[in-house]
Fold this protein.
Amino acid sequence: MRSKKITYGIIGYPLRHTLSPAMHNTAFRELKANATYKAFSLKADQLDDFFVNLKEKSSPIFGLNVTIPYKEEVLKYMDTLTPFAQRVGAVNTIVISPERTLTGHNTDGPGFLAHLVELKINTKGKRVAILGAGGSARAILATLCLIPERPESIKIYNRTSSRLDDLLEDLKTRFDVSIIQPVTQVEDLNVEIADILINTTSVGLGKDDPCIVDEEALHSNLFVYDLIYNPAQTALLKAARRRGAKTANGAGMLFYQGVLALQHWADMVLDDEIKQKMRKSLQKELESA
């Protein structure tokens, strides 16, 4: 093991909501690794310089997570992409070799799927509604379209329709998107007859953010998944629970994608005891947030 302390971290903007440092630093302590995990809050005009410095041999950084709004933006800095990251067109985990080459991974999709499996949510033949068209939406769309348990249909809405159009045009070149239908109004998601509703937008991060869909459309046969995990209960999740829907926030997805990211960085499989401690640290942070 290197004698010099190794740095890992997360890049995005803003990062006041991130709980990743607590989870990963717990793992490093359990592994007795000479490593630390930091949050790098970067504005868009700081990205180029950050990645130039990352390439330097003297850089202590050997792995990164990527969050809003840079999951697509960082593609141009990668030397290689894993096959799934290539299919998705978004990166949320970067492995940096001793030679300072950057490999882009996407653990969002597998992390999301692992959490659905834990929750016993079956997507096969279901009607899915998705809010948002960013990097997380890309990963979820790719996952749902590529797995054997494909939904019957996916309706997707984004406030900026041109961004959604661009996303789907790009995804058409990567995999079969025939089950995906873009809509121009939230009401056209037909949440009232959907089986699964997924929020991938940042609406809900703010304490005064509204419920992103009409509460009257939510129903007891619906599963509502909000990728936001801090706060643990967004206005959408609170409304869904009032309507009798099953709900989950993104803490489970954060945990599973984080485990996968750490395994990529360390090139090892974590044992269950360390995973449980990582998850407990996340839960503790959420409860105190």
